[in-house]
Amino acid sequence: MAIATISPTTGEVLATFEPHTAEQIEAHIAAADNAFKQLAETTFAQRAAWMRRAAEILESEADEVATLISTEMGKTFATAKYEALKSATGMRHFAENAERYLAPESPVPADSVGASSLDVRFEPIGVILAVMPWNYPLWQAVRFAAPALMAGNTGLLKHASNVPQSALYLGALFERGGFPAGAFSTLLIEGAAVAPLLDDRRIRAATLTGSVAAGASVAEAAGRNVKKTVLELGGTDVFIVMPSADVDRAAELAVNARVQNSGQSCIAAKRYYVHADVYSRFADRFVAGMAATVAGDPMAEGTSFGPLATERGRKDVEELVADAVAKGATVLTGGTTPEGAGWFYPATVLTDVTPEMRIYREECFGPVACLYSVDSVEEAIERSNDSEFGLSSSVWSNDDEEIALLGRRVDAGGVFVNGLTASFPAVPFGGVKDSGYGRELSAYGIREFVNVKTVWRA
Ligand code: NAP
User: Fold this and answer.
1) How many Å apart are CA 39 and CA 41, to the nearest integer?
2) Domain residues for 411?
3) How far is the centre of ligand 1, averaged over its atoms, from the C-alpha of 141 (Å)?
4) What is the per-residue pLDDT for 453?
5) Fewer CB within 10 A of the terminal residue: the chain, N end or C end?
6) Is 389 in contact with 431 (CB distance < 8 Å)?
7) Span from the CA of 194 to the centroid of ligand 1 (angstroms)
8) Other CB atoms within 10 Å distance of the CB of residue 337
9) How many C-beta atoms lie closer than 10 Å to residue 454's C-beta?
10) Residue 429 maps to a domain
């Protein structure tokens, strides 16, 4: 994919970038390796001061950054600004908590293992390669960068090729906060150039957020080199509504669960399983809510969501819907690509979706919901788990036993009860099955890329 800013709102090519040459890539790796040696001499307090300064800079530039994100990938200005401010909050969280998250531990009394002292320490490992997607251009990268830098690692960011200006902004931000040159920088390279980087001994691990195919490719290259990876991949999250739930509230929030970020969110609800007793009530409100959304100019007031980020992405959505309709799905609203410039696609609800249809199993990265009626909580759980993915879930019920059952049996990295799935700096985030492995955020996230070192003294 060429490295370029192409407006999803107009289709116009706004800026193009040459991929970095082999010499430039080498200079970035060398600088990151050198910065790692410098970070080793710093304290948590020093790194926290730099991190807070970087957060302040980001907050002070939130309007400009939000405009840049909206321009590059099409989300609304309001949601882009929210993302910039959330990223700054995440940076402050790790500035404040990294030392506590990584405090040495004594797992058992030293004398129980024949020692006079015993420490488990969490030490940084070196340069980490971060391959990131365009859908949350700032937040996805920051939720790796903030814990990594606070732990004392350094980062090389390979961002998605359609958000190069957001990538370059991030590549400069931490140095502007005070971190040594090279501690976090952007490599302008295409996806195909990533795997060979894992052969470089100075790159010690990799994290990738993106599609299953990209994740598998990076994990394969890392595996050949005995390097650790964390993968945050796709999802077909469920939204389960049981009769005891506040059905009207569920139906209202169900709209945003699907159309947030123009439907291009890994944790967007994609499959809706609604108990037959409340199906009609839910479906009427949900479909009306979806039909009332406005897909439009991301910079304009009154827009619910912007265009899809890429032309290819919209084609993928169109193909999934066309395949479902050809095989008998019913379109309750949306389903037709509008005329005119920009990669817009309307909020769409499909029903009568069957296993023969691609959308039954595949992730649809656009504002298309599949609505199913189920007869019991058991059926909802069984159908939820009949998926290659297991990222998160949103379940709606006011019955404690049912909630306990859903919490235990839904096979995913998260179960959010009577609310939408969200990420918080202090709460672990990640999936199971094809949704990936490892965790980001919280103490679990910051400990992914550390050497858990045992120091035993006789
Ligand atoms: P994608 O094509 O996999 O791209 C993601 C990143 O991987 C980009 O930087 C891309 O670079 C790079 N890439 C692509 N092919 C690669 C390869 N063979 N080797 C190494 N790097 C490669 O993903 P997308 O379709 O743009 O993004 C949407 C996907 O991300 C969805 O599946 C979504 O669910 C997932 N996602 C997951 C999470 C999570 O936390 N679990 C969060 C957000 C998104 P180029 O742009 O240069 O191709």
Assistant:
1) 5
2) 237-424
3) 12
4) 98
5) C
6) yes
7) 12
8) 15
9) 11
10) no
Segment 344-361 shows an average pLDDT of 98
- Ligand 1: which atom is nearest the Cα of residue 162? 46
Domain co-membership, 172 together with 151 = yes
- Count of the separate structural domains present in the chain: 2
Q: Which ligand 1 atom is nearest residue 309's CA? A: 26
Give a yes or no: residue 345 inside a domain. yes
Measure 315 CA to ligand 1 centroid, in angstroms. Answer: 17
Q: What is the CATH number of the domain that holds 327?
A: 3.40.309.10
Longest Cα separation, the chain: 76
Ligand 1 touching residue 445 (CB < 6 A): no
Pocket perturbation via mutation, ligand 1, pick of 20, 83, 86, 131 by most ligand atoms within 8 A of CB: 131
* Residue 264 shares a structural domain with residue 149: no
Please give the distance, rounded to the nearest whole angstrom, from the Cα atom of residue 132 to the centre of ligand 1.
6
Torsion of CA 193, 196, 197, 201, to 10 degrees: -170
Q: Best mutation site among 157, 186, 211, 230 for ligand 1, i.e. most ligand atoms within 8 A of its Cβ?
A: 211
Give catalytic residue positions: 232, 266
Find where tokens 């679990």 sit: 444
- What is the rounded average pLDDT of the residues 302-309? 97
Distance 211 CA to ligand 1 centre (A): 5
161 Cβ inside 6 Å of ligand 1: yes
pLDDT at 323 over 90: yes
CATH number at residue 121: 3.40.605.10
Q: Are 436 and 211 in contact (CB under 8 A)?
A: no
Q: Are 420 and 441 found together in one domain?
A: no
Assigned token pair, 37: 């040696």
Does 182 reside within a domain?
Answer: yes
Spacing of C-alpha 292 from chain mean position: 27
By most ligand atoms within 8 Å of CB, the mutation choice from 83, 159, 209, 258 for ligand 1 is 209
Please indicate, yes or no, whether residues 283 and 320 belong to a single structural domain of this protein.
yes
Ligand 1 atom nearest residue 190's Cα: 47
Q: From the CB of 135, is ligand 1 less than 6 Å away?
A: yes
Query: CA torsion sign, 439 to 434 to 395 to 331?
Result: positive
Q: Are 205 and 253 part of one and the same domain?
A: no
User: Does pLDDT of 1 surpass 90?
Assistant: no
Q: Which atom of ligand 1 is nearest to the CA of 133?
A: 5
Are 30 and 8 part of one and the same domain?
A: yes
Position 120 scores a pLDDT of 98
Please tell me the distance between residue 214's alpha carbon and the centre of ligand 1 in angstroms: 6
pLDDT digits (tens, 9 = 90+) for 131-164: 999 999 999 999 999 999 999 999 999 999 999 9
pLDDT at 347: 98
User: Does residue 76 sit within a domain?
Assistant: yes
Instruction: Convert the pLDDT of each residue in 26-66 to its tens digit.
Output: 999 999 999 999 999 999 999 999 999 999 999 999 999 99
